[in-house]
């Protein structure tokens, strides 16, 4: 059977294979010399995979299974894209978790580069948890795992996964972190305009990385320049 194409953009094709794994293939660019194109696609795939690997124990991201040249194979997250479902869900709790996720992301000095609800997946926690009901596992281990799950997810019954770090990069700059937030703000206003103001307020209130006051103060400066308009999906 052929892989099922889930999404095709300008940079990559995202598909689901027969093993229920996600394949991300970077698209060849005919306007570049083939050798240069191969190097760039491979370098960007490896960079994206490294960022996701670094974040795997910090925030919810898909598990990287393997990278091969310009291709990444990763875990399929069984959930719903927030871009299509945010209004139908408990968006207040979701926005709080988004802000906590961004706090951890920016504290690692990692910039997502394309923060929109299209790159966030809502997953019921019971679909992602390990089965700890095996009688061979001690009660102490079960309780420890349960407590860790509760701590990681703030007693919510869902997880928000960040996906697609194709434009991600490392940066300590206040400007880059503020641009991340600004792009998310624009995406909310464009896609979720009925609840956007409330969502933005919750996210900015709960976003607390190092130097968060400087980051938040930079957002209106970026908006006034108009450099990052129309970047949302």
Task: Give, in order, the helices and strands.
Answer: EEEHEEEHHEEHHEEHHH
Strand order of the largest sheet: 1-2-3-5-4
Look at the structure and give the mean pLDDT: 86
Task: Count helical runs.
Answer: 8
Shape field: globular
- Percent strand: 15-25%
Radius of gyration: 19 Å
Kindly provide the name of the CATH class of the largest domain: Mainly Alpha
CATH architecture of the largest domain: Orthogonal Bundle
Number of domains: 2
Low-confidence parts, pLDDT < 50 over ≥5 residues?
A: 127-138, 144-154
The CATH homologous superfamily of the largest domain is termed Transferase(Phosphotransferase) domain 1
The largest pleated sheet is described as:
5 strands, antiparallel
Helix content: 40-55%
Beta-strand segment tally: 10
Distance between the termini: 31 Å
Find the CATH topology of the largest domain: Transferase(Phosphotransferase), domain 1
Oligomer: single chain
